[in-house]
Type III pantothenate kinase (Moorena bouillonii PNG), 262 residues
Amino acid sequence: MANSFLGLVIGNSRLHWAWFVDNTLKKAWDTNHLTPAAVAQLIKDWRSNVMSAEIFPSQLAAQGSDPSKLLPLYIASVVPAQTALWQNYSDTTILTLEDLPLSGLYPTLGIDRALAVFGAGHRYSYPVLVIDAGTALTFTGANQNLQLIGGAILPGLGLQLQSLAQKTGALPAIELPAQLPKRWSLETSEAIASGVVYTVLASIRDFIEDWQREFPNSPIAMTGGDSEQLVTYFQSQFPAIAAQIIVDPYLIFWGILSVVGS
Ligand SMILES: Nc1ncnc2c1ncn2[C@@H]1O[C@H](COP(=O)(O)OP(=O)(O)O)[C@@H](O)[C@H]1O
Ligand SMILES: CC(C)(COP(=O)(O)O)[C@@H](O)C(=O)NCCC(=O)O
Ligand SMILES: [K+]
């Protein structure tokens, strides 16, 4: 059993880090993706027992790692080009679908989805539905036999907004509004917000209702960078659904802990 280790989840927008000590999650934080040069420097520093304060929280940077051994690093990545940068770090383990005790997985399933559904089932209960509102918005469900039932993938909220701005001549890039926008808008920015937000809320509700027809008592867990914002919208639009959603930013880390910890 590794008594202290790092988890690194490489998503399509950013890196999600966690520091585990004695089978608990001590700290979690996010950074941007790193350049090849930055990763090489990080590994070099790490070997001389220096943990860059730019990447690591002060607690960990100040402590450094045990000089006698490097902190093991467990990586779960859905971005192969970023994974490749870490291959020079000797104490790296890349987590794969084979590390998970789930059945019914298909070979190209994202490891982030598999770990999140495993983490959620382990922490809450099976059957379980996970909604990950990240770069992509994904639904991933597993039954009481730890069998993958399946799921769905669509562009995440940020990606929907970006693609409209990038692929049209007249639509501006907008941020998600803090509160539910007006549905019938007389203004472009708000019309975009309305279209994206109300459509995503209706879709999520539909997926949840469909899941609950088969698995009525299943917990519904939501994670990912847009999860809190989405639940805020749900509270205004569909409060009964909002009340059933568990927001947990750490689902993937619970998955890593169940796989790696003892
Ligand atoms: N500081 C941030 N940097 C980037 N995205 C953020 C940030 N805070 C919230 N987000 C939202 O999180 C979404 C990305 O979710 P995240 O779970 O970080 O992605 P991934 O795991 O795919 O890298 C974006 O669509 C964006 O709207
Ligand atoms: C669907 C995803 C792009 C989600 O990535 P994320 O938004 O978390 O960065 C990722 O899980 C992935 O590349 N999956 C492979 C295809 C699949 O899960 O079927
Ligand atoms: K994600």
